[in-house]
Amino acid sequence: MRNPFPRPLILGHRGAPREAPENTLASFARAMEAGADGVELDVQRSRDGVPVVIHDDTLERTMGVRGAVSALDWPAIGQLTQARVPSLEQAAAWAAAAGAWLNVEVKSAGVEAATLRVIEGVGLSGRTLFSSFQPAVVAELGRLAPGALRFLLLEAWDDAAYDAVLGCGAAGVCLEAAAADALTLEVLRNEDLPVVVWTVDDPTRIRSLFRQGVAAVITNDPRGAVVETG
Predict the structure, then answer these.
(1) Which string of b and e fits 188-211 if b means at least 16 CB within 10 Å?
(2) Model confidence over 100-122: pLDDT tens digits?
(3) Whole-number Cα distances in Å, 91 to 25, 87, 101, 118
(4) Residues 52-73: pLDDT tens digits?
(5) On the chain, which terminus has fewer CB atoms closer than 10 Å, C or N?
(6) 161 contacts 168 by C-beta, under 8 angstroms
(7) What is the pTM for the complete model shown?
(8) Rounded to whole angstroms, how far apart are CA atoms 181 and 186?
């Protein structure tokens, strides 16, 4: 399978979540300090249309406060979380300065245009992969920015997944680690679909995946991954 990146990448899953709170600027910085090539992060839409870097659709699990992201304006999110939740604009500015690659997972529809504007605004289009579990989101990103690198997130590879990839125009797939067996990777290689595998923390498995030609691996332990694979 072709690799759209200049080399196989190690991406910190929401940063370096074992060293700092996930999806925070501190976590992203820790991943890069550990030697990762970049980070995977999640984007939700605030009520006023701001792309917010958080995995869940509420603030409760990660920030310990109640509130749905989509029901709050960006200033209120900052106030409720004591500015611990970054906007995508803040994360992208950090990535541009740090030389980091980004895998931006778009969690919900309606934030595609704003997400693209942020990435393009800091000149990161060439170092950003956009992904989503929703084929409609992947398709919309492509409609708005035909040159954007877009992958469909999948938990399995089957006929339905193949049809979804073709239907949304994805350039590749982000595949859950349990589904990334040798046979499936061979099939994807024959289809000329690059693969990003998530989430892998075992260095031996990471080395094996790179030998099998995957484009990138997302890991909770970028420090351990870099030490063992570097």
Answers:
(1) bbeeebbbbbbbbbebebbeebbe
(2) 999 999 999 999 999 999 999 99
(3) 7, 6, 11, 10
(4) 999 999 999 999 999 999 999 9
(5) C
(6) no
(7) 0.97
(8) 9
